[in-house]
Amino acid sequence: MSASTASSSRSRARDESAADADAEGDTDESSVLVVSQLFPPESMAGAHRWEKLLRNTPEAIESRVVCPQPSVPVGEFERRYRPWSTDRIGGVPVTRLFTYQPVDDRTDLERILNHVIFSVLATVYVLVHGRKYDCVVVQIGPHTTLVPGLAALATGRGLVVDVYDRWLKNAVDFGFTDERSLVYRLLRWMEWVAIERCDRLIALTPTMAAQYRSEYDIDEDRIETVPFGVDDDLFDPSIATDEEPRIIYTGKLGEGQAFEPFLRGFRRAEIEHDLVVYGFGERREELEALSSRLDSDDRVRINGPVPREEIPGLVASSAISLVPLKTEHALDYARPTKFLETMAVGTPYVASAVAEIESVTEESSAGLAVENDPDAVATALRELAADPDRRRSMGERGVAFVDRQHRWDELGDRVGDLLSDVAREREVAGSGLRARFGRLATAAGFRR
Questions:
Q1: How far, CA to CA in Å, does 156 sit from each of 135, 415, 436?
Q2: Distance between terminal CA atoms of the chain?
Q3: Quick one: which of 233, 224, 219 has its CA closest to 205?
Q4: Average pLDDT, whole number, for the chain?
Q5: Reduced to 3 states, what is the DSSP secondary structure of residue 160?
Q6: Which residues, 6+ apart, have CB-to-CB distance to 181 below 8 Å?
Q7: What's the per-residue H, E or C state across 345-406?
Q8: Tag placement on the chain: N or C end, fewer CB within 10 Å?
Q9: Of the candidates 273, 265, 290, 280, the residue with the CA atom closest to the CA atom of residue 352
């Protein structure tokens, strides 16, 4: 599929969708309150998810987002001390609540303060203003957003739990907490109550949905899979320029990334391409030290983050994109945004073979999924670097895959239908005093 064909097909689909909406006429209005720890202008992966979904829901869905003052990436935002402020991001109404905002590298205590203070104030907000809304959406991670979600259940609101990151399970795997700790047990209990009592669970990928079905007592018809979309105005395949002999990684330099086997694999590949890294995170010094030990300083450039609008051009003009994920942890569900954005601009990838990436690779043939072994990475890089025709074909298949499955307008329509269904079900169930006490007991886990 050419870039122009992909863009024109998207335009036709949007026009057809708008025409269908006009033909259907008026629909019942629903209102939703979204509680999210991250929201633009923050730039981490989950921050833009509900901004994009709400912008693409039908007009019959009235929405508001409650989030803290921005703080990620740390150091990019000034501290704010107002109890609350209002804003509009991309046309979405936003209420920002006070929380502690780290301004330097976050310590564990600062991260906890940031999450907990917002969670408490968001819970108060739900208790005071929640009656205005048909349902409340809480986005996890972190799991502290479940507290306002339980408040929504207790006060008779519909509850939708959107999981884009298995934050608690990963925290154990990465050694940040222990399953025997009181905090873990409390968060695990809140997860159990919220997931088994919510009206809908939104899972990021089919792999994640299957994990939750196996772990919790939740009917299949209450689980909806809604992946991340791709901003096709920003990540447009038509922006592709002449390819440069460059391999690229963009994103967080965090604990979930398998950088060492990929850096060692790049060194062993002995290809003419340079490796360029753009990102932020606690592991930058570690990567620079590893690059130095491998005598790759002249071939590997590790840079800080760049403005998001520059990323599409950098990725589109690169020969290969890297998506390194640790496979020994609970990341099998992951379909990272950088992975989708790479395909959206037609750049083939070499990625870690976690279950979800293997599934996408098998379906799309848009790149290579390899074990986190330096020799396997080196072989994949050599194969793609030596075959520009193969890279071009993979890139075209990646564009087509994203166009089929990851358009925000289609995902927004699906979420709009889900929210409307929850609102209708809650209306039928009623919100009288007996129903409210019943939901309070259910939210606390005292009855099923």
A1: 9, 21, 5
A2: 51
A3: 224
A4: 87
A5: strand
A6: none
A7: CCCCEEEECCHHHHHHHHHHCCEEEECCCHHHHHHHHHHHHCCHHHHHHHHHHHHHHHHHHC
A8: C
A9: 265
Q: In this structure, are residues 63 and 49 in contact, taking their beta carbons and an 8 Å threshold?
A: no
Helix (H, G, I), strand (E, B) or coil at 245: strand
If we measure between CA atoms, which residue out of 439, 441, 448, 419 comes closest to residue 152? 439
In the predicted model, what is the mean pLDDT of residues 93-119?
91
- CATH class name, domain 237-405: alpha beta
One-letter identity of residue 431: S
Residue type, 210: A
Domain 21-229+407-444, what fold? Answer: Rossmann fold (3.40.50)
With a cut of 80, say whether residue 150 has pLDDT above it: yes
Helix (H) or strand (E) holding 12: helix 3-24
d(CA 62, CA 58) in angstroms, rounded, equals 9
**pLDDT tens across 238-284, in order?**
887 778 899 999 998 988 899 999 999 999 999 999 999 999 888 99
**Each residue's pLDDT tens digit, 165-174:** 887 776 666 6
Does residue 308 or residue 89 have the better pLDDT? Answer: 89
Integer Cα distance of 425 and 445 in angstroms: 21
C-alpha 25/C-alpha 39 separation (Å) is 32
Residues 6+ apart with CB under 8 A from 237: 3, 6, 7, 316, 344, 345, 346, 395, 399
SS3 197: helix
Domain pair 21-229+407-444 / 237-405, same fold: yes
Phi, psi of 65 (to 5 degrees): -110, 135
* 7-26 CB burial, b ≥16 within 10 A, e <16: beebeeeeeebeeeeeeeee
∠ CA 332-336-341 to the nearest 5 degrees? 145
pTM of the model: 0.81
How many C-beta atoms lie closer than 10 Å to residue 285's C-beta?
A: 10
Q: How far apart are CA 321 and CA 348, in angstroms?
A: 6
Domain ranges (residues) in the chain: 21-229+407-444, 237-405
Residue type, 168: L
- Amino acid occupying residue 243: E
β-bridge partners, 68: 97
Confidence at residue 228, expressed as pLDDT on a 0 to 100 scale: 94
pLDDT score of 336 more than 60: yes
* Burial letters 208-220, b for 16+ CB under 10 A, else e: bbbbbbeeeebee
The Cα 144–Cα 68 span in angstroms is 13
